[in-house]
Design goal:
With about 375 residues, the protein is an alpha+beta fold. Among the domains are: about 1-55, no CATH class; about 60-100, no CATH class; about 105-225, Band 7 domain (Tetrahydropterin Synthase, Chain A, 2-Layer Sandwich). The protein has helices at about 1-20, 35-55, 150-155, 165-180, 185, 190-205, 225-340, 345-355, and strands spanning about 60, 65-70, 80, 85-90, 95-100, 105-110, 120, 125, 130-135, 135-145, 210-220. Strand 2 and strand 3 (about 80) form a beta hairpin.
Length: about 375
């Protein structure tokens, strides 16, 4: 019974809704009430608009140069989206999406008054020597770090609140860094560039925790008083003359080096030629020395051979003479021995033959019956 009552109630509700929407009649045929059709069309249109609005509210477009932070209001989670395109968010307050401009921006210090957050009055600096100078147009190019968009929102607020960090930091740091230089050094482009790099480094150290990064600082030449500007112009003119002198010195040095190179080349050529001549003379002298040495060796060999031959001949001759002397010695000795055995008369006879024509005063005297020698004594007249 309960189930039948429930089904009947459902059928009655469906019939009432179909009647409101211009549906079927009790017998199943189309309802012919015009008011019901109009009400049904309005209901369908409103439903379509509601669905379309819900769909549009569920998507957010991210353009190039933008970054979005999607906050889950239920869990408190935060998601950074840096890629351009469509992102999905749950409607009915579950998700909140905040879009920040992450494109490069110019912070300009120009003119005599502040215009807005990105355009402020010109930068005036007091140098370390007490003089003042200013920059007519100073530009700082910066942008937020896309992956640190949550910190940018936390420190600077929504939309363009992060721009408020630039004015106090930029003016104070640029004044501090350029104020370290004197009027002479700041007019030097090298020192000027060093001060700019120091200022950029300090700005990034202070702004980086807030999600802001400085990419470039563009400053014109500093401007001084009219009298000092004239002095700078004179100094620049003298500097240009100095550069011309340096260029002339460099050109003279180049010419000198070229001339030295030419002289060295000529000297080296002469040295090489002289060396070649000396090497040729040395080779000739060496050949002559070898030839003379060969001739000397030949002469030596010949002379040594002749000497050895003469020596051999002399030795043979001496041996022959020795033999002859030995033979004569033996002959004489034989004669002496023969005289020894012969009587004195024979000896005297031989002596007389040898002394023929010689007058000798002899005083015979014998102390031996058998004389073995004859003593001859010359008595002076």
């Amino acid at each position: 019974m309960a189930k039948r009552r429930k089904n009947k109630s459902s059928d009655d509700l469906m019939g009432f809704v179909q009647g409101l929407l211009g549906g079927k009649s009790e017998d199943g045929g189309p309802e012919g009430n015009p008011v019901s059709r109009v009400f049904g069309a309005i209901w369908y249109g409103g439903a379509a608009i509601a669905v379309l609005g819900t769909m549009l509210a569920s998507f957010t477009s991210i353009e190039p140069g933008q970054v979005a932070v999607r906050v889950n209001n239920v869990t408190g989670g935060e998601t950074v989206i840096t890629q351009p395109g469509w992102i999905v968010k749950v409607p009915f307050g579950i998700h909140s999406v905040y879009v920040l401009d992450a494109s490069p921006k110019n912070f300009t210090m120009k003119g005599l008054k502040n215009v807005d957050a990105l355009n402020v009055r010109e930068l005036t600096v007091r140098a370390s020597d007490g003089s003042n100078f200013h920059f007519s147009d100073t530009t700082i190019i910066f942008q937020i770090k896309g992956d640190e968009a949550v910190g940018v929102m936390t420190d600077g607020g929504l939309d363009k609140g992060f721009l408020a960090w630039m004015r106090p930091y930029a003016r104070a740091i640029l004044r501090d860094e350029f104020g370290r230089e004197s009027t002479i050094s700041v007019s030097n482009p090298a020192k000027f560039g060093e001060a700019t790099m120091r200022a950029k480094t300090r700005l990034n150290e202070l702004l980086s925790p807030h999600g802001i990064q400085v990419s470039q600082i563009v400053t014109p030449r500093p401007q001084f008083t009219e009298q000092y500007e004239k002095l700078i112009e004179e100094r620049n003119a003298l500097g240009n003359q100095l550069e011309v002198i340096k260029s002339d010195l460099a050109a003279a040095k180049t010419r000198r080096e070229r001339q030295l190179a030419e002289v060295n080349r000529d000297q080296n050529r002469q040295i090489q030629e002289k060396r070649a001549e000396l090497e040729s003379a040395l080779a000739t002298a060496t050949a002559e020395q070898a030839n003379i040495t060969r001739q000397v060796d030949t002469y030596k060999i010949g002379k040594v051979g002749q000497g050895q031959a003469a020596r051999s001949a002399s030795q043979r001759k001496s041996e022959e003479l020795k033999g002859q002397l030995d033979a004569e010695y033996r002959s004489r000795k034989a004669q002496i021995d023969a005289f020894r055995t012969q009587p004195v008369e024979r000896v005297m006879e031989k002596l007389g033959d040898s002394l023929k024509g010689v007058t000798i005063d002899i005083q015979p005297w014998a102390d031996d019956a058998s004389p073995s020698r004859v003593k001859l004594q010359n008595i002076a007249e």
